[in-house]
Amino acid sequence: MPHKGKLLVITGAGLSAESGISTFRGANGLWEDHKIEAICHARSWRSNFDTVHRFYNARRTQLATAKPNAGHEALVEWEARYESILFTQNVDNLLEVAGARKPVHLHGFLPDMRCTACDNVWTIGARAWDQTKECCPACGSRKDVKPFIVFFGEEAPLYRALIEALAIMTDDDVLLIIGTSGVVLPILDIAEKTPGLSILNNLHSEPAIPEDLFDHVFIEPVTSAVDKMDRVLRETLLPRKGAA
Q1: Residue 23 in contact with residue 30, Cβ under 8 Å?
Q2: If one looks up domain 22-65+109-149 in CATH, what number appears?
Q3: In the chain, which residues fall in CATH 3.30.1600.10?
Q4: Which candidate in 53, 105, 107, 216 is catalytic?
Q5: DSSP string computed for the chain
Q6: 216 given a catalytic annotation
Q7: What is the pTM of this model?
Q8: Structure confidence at residue 1 as a pLDDT band (50, 70, 90)
Q9: Strand 83-88 to strand 6-11: parallel, antiparallel, or no bridges (unpaired)?
C-alpha cells in the first residue's frame, strides 16, 4: 500500500542525453575528445582561458534549441505530486525549462557566469560569452571570469545539501537515481546506505554501480522508463496533500 514518504532524486547526464545534450563520460562522451586538465580543472583553466570559454560557449549555445524530454517532464510531475527534493549533476537548464521549481545543481549552472575575483554570479542565458571583450559587471575583471561550473579541484558547496538530505532519509522514503555513471558521485555508497526503496534507471549498466543494491532497475532510455518508474512511485508513495 502507498505510504507517506519523501522522494529524493539524483540525476546525471543520461537524463538530458535524449534531448541532444552530450554526456561527458561513456561512448562518444565529451571527455573522449577533450582533456579534462585543459578545460575543466581549477589549476589550469586560466592558462587555457580561450579554450575553456570556447568549449563552454559551444555547450551553452546548445541550450537555445534543446528541449526537455519525457524524463524531465516526469520529474516535474513527481516534484509536484510528492514531498521531494531533486538533485542534478547536470549543468543544463532543461529541468527549469520543463517547469521544475527548485532543482539543486550540484556542479553548477551553464547559463550563469562567475567572477572569481569578486564572487559575482550572473546569468547570460544560452548565448556565447565573448572572452575577448566582456567583463564582470560588478568589478570589471575579464581574466577572472569563468563559466559557473564546478571544475575538478574546486569545492562543490552544494554537496553539503545532498549529504544532509541523504542523512535524514527513512524507511518510508524513496531514492531515485537516473542517468549517472557513479564515478563522480559515490552512488554505490549512497545506495548501500539508503534505508528505503531505491530505483535505478541508466541507459547502460555502469561498472561503478552494482545493480543488485537497488529494488527496481531499468536499464533503458529514461523516456521509455518513465511510465515504469511512475508505476513504482504510485504504488509506494502517497501524494502530498492537494496533489493529483
Answers
A1: yes
A2: 3.30.1600.10
A3: 22-65+109-149
A4: 107
A5: --B--EEEEEE-THHHHTTTPPPSSSTT-GGGTS-HHHHSBTTTTTTTHHHHHHHHHHHHHHTTT----HHHHHHHHHHHHSEEEEEE---SSHHHHHT-S--EETTEEEEEEEETTT--EEE--SS---TTT---TTT--STTEEEEE--BTS--TTHHHHHHHHHT--TT-EEEEES--SSSS-HHHHHHH--SEEEEEESS--TTS-GGGSSEEEES-HHHHHHHHHHHHHHHBPPPTT--
A6: no
A7: 0.93
A8: confident
A9: parallel
- Which CATH code of 3.90.226.10, 3.10.310.10, 3.40.50.1220, 3.40.50.300 fits the domain covering 1-21+68-107+155-244? 3.40.50.1220
Q: Tell me the per-residue pLDDT of 155-188, one tens digit each, with 9 for 90 and over.
A: 999 999 999 999 999 999 999 999 999 989 999 9
Every domain range in the chain assigned CATH 3.40.50.1220: 1-21+68-107+155-244
Residue type at 15 in one-letter notation: L
Count of positions (residues) in the chain: 244
